[in-house]
Structures are given as structure tokens and as C-alpha cells.
Amino acid sequence: MRLRRLCRNGRALIVPLDEGLRAGPVEGFENPLQLIKRIARSPADAVLLSPGLLEQAAAELGQLGVILRIECGAGGPLVSAADAVSLGADAVVTRATLGGEREHEELHRLARVIGQARRWNLPVVAETLPAGRPAALAAGIARAVRIAAEMGADVIAAPYTGEPESFRRLVASAGRPVLVAGGPLRDSSLRALLELVDQSLSAGAEGVMLSGGLRDPDSTLAALAALVHEDAGVESALAAAQQA
After folding, report:
1. Residue of 196, 111, 123, 202 whose CA lies nearest to 161
2. Rounded to an integer, what distance in angstroms lies between the CA atom of residue 25 and that of residue 226?
3. Distance from CA of residue 243 to its chain's centroid?
4. Rounded CA separation 220/164 (Å)
5. If you write DSSP's letter for every residue of 119-149 in order, what string do you get?
6. What is the pLDDT averaged over residues 181-206?
């Protein structure tokens, strides 16, 4: 049931707003409460928040679903799955970087989060990232996604592999909903961002979870919603951005 709040028509447009945990008040995220108010009026389905920001912003979320970050990488747990339920989260997210020297620790952390969340019937979104050489990027992403699926993640967020066919194989292998993830948005033109998302959706992604500051939340989210929820093409999505 909780996953239904994150999706509309089987697809999800999720806005990560936890960048302050890693980078502080980055450009476009200086006033998180004001930004959340704008996103709550947008076509976005859900936001990804830190525990502290969820407590601050609870009254501003409107109908948005909430994915809570409960782990801060090597920094360890932020809150437990039980805390996430008490805070009103619809799902939790954790990150796993696989293929490097610390893979065993990453897998142990992912297993712990999935085990805790399962006891509370709380869906887990696994952010999977490959470690290693750029030449093996597509294979590394596919491997990380499959491992997260095998371990029981309910939804998997993964970077785009760079071309549709390899991403299509990745989605088929996962057997779980795959969201295209990555960023930052502020370093891409809107057209480049929309082309990446369009290719990902055409290859089977069931939504987007793209990090980074939103230079213009209203137009960017209108364009992304046109792709995700209306099956629009890139040109139509750009037109939606102009009208927002």
C-alpha cells in the first residue's frame, strides 16, 4: 500500500532533497522549506528527505509521498525503520556502492536495512552505484542492480547506463521497479536531462529519482511529469516547461 503513494499510473517522479546531508546549503537548496512548498504544488509524486528535514517540513508536504534516508553511508544509521514509521515515511532509502574494496560492508548495511524495514512492512529503495573503471560502467551498474534485487530491495534506483539496450537488459534482469537516478540537475541543460529520462523510460524505467539542485523547480518538474506521467516526447515536455 505504501508504494502506491509513491507512484501514479505505475510510474514515479521523486525529488531527492537530502543533499544537505552531504554538501550543506548548495545552490538551489538554500531554503529547503520554501522549496518543499513549491514541490508540493508541482506534479511530483514524492520527495526524499533526511529525518530532520521531514520533521521540519511535515506540515508543508501536502499529498507528497515521503521516502526517508535512514543511513548516511559510512556515517552509519540516522534513524531506525521503526523511527521512519513513526515519522510517517512511506518508504526508506539506503545507498550501496558495489564492486569496490568495501563491498562486503556495503552489502551488510543493505541487508540490515532491508531486514529492519521488512519487520515494519516498509518498502526499501536501494540506490545502487558501481565502483571501478568507467569502461565497465554498464556492467557494474547491472551487477549492482541485480544484487540489490536478490537481497530484497523493493525498488532500485540506478544511474543510466548510457544507452537504451544495456539499460533495457538491466531492467529485465532486476525483476523489480527500476528508477533512473543520478545528477546533479543543475549541471545539465533541460533538454539533455529530458533526453536522458526519455531514453530511460523507453528502456523500461518506472520513474526518476534525480538528485541535485533544481534551478527552476516549476518548469523542470512540469517537463519531467510530462515524460513520466503523460508519455510525452522531449519536445512536448519542453513545451510543458515553457508553460509552467
Report:
1. 196
2. 29
3. 26
4. 23
5. HTT--EEEEEEE-S-GGGHHHHHHHHHHHHH
6. 85
241 within a domain of the structure (yes/no)? no
What integer pLDDT is reported at residue 211 of this predicted model? 73
Structural domain total, the chain: 1
Identify which has the larger pLDDT, 214 or 157.
157
Question: Taking the C-alpha atoms of 159, 161, 164 and 167 in order, what is their torsion angle to the nearest 10 degrees?
Answer: -70
Query: Collapsing DSSP states into helix, strand and coil, what is residue 17?
Result: coil
Alpha-carbon separation of residue 133 from 9, 62, 158 (angstroms)? 37, 42, 17
Residue 170 lies inside a defined structural domain of this protein:
yes
- Report the distance separating Cα 178 and Cα 154, nearest Å: 9
CATH number at residue 172: 3.20.20.70
pLDDT digits (tens, 9 = 90+) for 19-76: 766 766 677 677 889 999 999 999 999 999 999 999 999 999 999 999 999 987 666 7
Q: Which of 79, 75, 90, 24 is nearest to 52 (CA)?
A: 79
Q: Transcribe 55-105 into DSSP letters.
A: HHHGGG-TT-EEEEE-B-GGG-BSS-HHHHHHHT-SEEEEEEEESSTTHHH
Residue 213, pLDDT above cutoff 80: no
